[in-house]
Amino acid sequence: VATKLKVLNLAWCRSLKGTPDLSAFKSLEILILEYCWYLKEIHPSIGDLKTLVSLNVTGCRELKELPAGVGKMKNLRELILNGTAIREIPISRGCLTKLENLSARSCKKLAQLPESMGSLVSLTRLDLSYSGIEGLSESIGSLKELETLNASHCESLACIPSSIGHLVSLSVLDLRECSKLDQLPVSICSLTSLTELNLARTAIAELPESIVNLQNLRILDITRTHIAELPRDIGMLAKLQELRVSGIWALPESISKLSSLQLLSFQHCEKLQEIPELPSGLRALRIGYQ
């Protein structure tokens, strides 16, 4: 039976402290170990599971490390580590080339990503939200298929590497609540596929003027940042549909050229004395002081 099993679900086995030898499961594709609260060890034989495509250890709060063999898997497409005590993600160079989804949400002990991240050439989604990440590896620029990067609520994240500008497929970049993040690399303006950029509650003080090159941008949120002015030519963002700002002193005249804008939200803009002509297609204007 073991040799034909494709899905093994041991979720919520709270008495499980370690997995057994898994080498007999020759056809296993999905291994679910969610919320095995006291799981401390995954047997190294997991590296022998050539057919494994999904490993989920969400909520295994005692799990501090993964076997090195996980980082050498050829067919793994999904690796979910949410809420574990893992300090590093084993990624062997040239391996995990089929991995599409990597989620390390709420991994508070995870401070860095390995330089070998660049091997994840098929990765489309990377979730590091609420983690202990302090910085992103320069090798992240090699992830040409990455579409979504969520690093929101990473309180220790202080910088974004310039190589982020090489993420030609990136559509969503979520950096909200990264309170130590005080600047963006100019290279971010090369993300021509970007549709959503969330910088709310960061320490960023200005947007690069060339951000107007993000011709596919639809949502821009800069509320509760230190940004006091919008780029002069913001009207060039022809596809922008939602713009959320706060603390703005003045609005550029070109804002009237945002022909696709449907929602414009102001918060805490007490110093804003004048609002120029707004786009004719605007559907919602919100002004708040709370």
How would you describe this structure in keywords?
290 residues; mainly beta; 13-stranded parallel beta sheet; 13 strands
- Computed CA radius of gyration, to the nearest angstrom: 22 Å
What is the overall pLDDT average?
A: 96
The major beta sheet can be summarized as:
13 strands, parallel
Order of helices and strands: EEEEEEEEEEEEE
Shape: elongated
Percent of sequence in beta strands:
15-25%
Euclidean distance between termini CA atoms: 61 Å
What can you see in these coordinates?
The chain is mostly beta strands. It has strands at 7-9, 30-32, 54-56, 78-80, 101-103, 125-127, 148-150, 172-174, 196-198, 219-221, 242-246, 263-267, 284-288. The termini are far apart.
Quick structural gist:
0% of the residues lie in helices and 16% in strands.
Write the layout of secondary structure elements.
Layout: E1 7-9, E2 30-32, E3 54-56, E4 78-80, E5 101-103, E6 125-127, E7 148-150, E8 172-174, E9 196-198, E10 219-221, E11 242-246, E12 263-267, E13 284-288
Parallel strand pairs: 1-2, 2-3, 3-4, 4-5, 5-6, 6-7, 7-8, 8-9, 9-10, 10-11, 11-12, 12-13
